[in-house]
Amino acid sequence: MTGEPADRIFHALADATRRDIVARVIRHAESVSALARHYPMSFAAVQKHVAVLERASLVTKERRGREQIVHADMTVLRRAARLLEAYEEIWRERVARIDQLIAED
């Protein structure tokens, strides 16, 4: 994962409210109305947060009657986790090289 999709995902996860929404819908799907009850902001503001998460493909919405149920997309979350793991591996290799250089001295 690189480029614009990665940018959208990490932009969406840069906000604490959006991270909290993702955590809640990972546990169980919730309607936008139910999510809005958890935050000291308007329903419209929560709807905008959900829209940002949806554009990043981190959540999907399913219409059930008058409600829109928000689901986490674990596939996209796992792709983001793999990208972070790749960065961690680069960092670990650098640390190992530094340790090796120190041991050689």
Report on this model:
- The protein is an alpha+beta fold.
- It is built from five helices and three strands; from the N terminus they run ααβααββα.
- Strand 2 (59-64) and strand 3 (67-72) form a beta hairpin.
- The longest helix is centred in the C-terminal third of the chain and has 31 residues, at 74-104.
- It is elongated.
- It starts with a helix and ends with a helix.
- The model has no long low-confidence stretch (mean pLDDT 94).
Please give a handful of descriptors for the protein shown.
alpha+beta; three-stranded antiparallel sheet; 3 strands
Spatial strand arrangement across the major sheet: 1-3-2
Distance between the termini: 39 Å
Secondary structure: helix percent: 55-70%
Structural class: alpha+beta
List the helices and strands and how they pair.
Layout: H1 3-13, H2 16-27, E1 30-31, H3 32-36, H4 43-55, E2 59-64, E3 67-72, H5 74-104
Antiparallel strand pairs: 1-3, 2-3
Helix pairs in contact: 1-4, 2-4
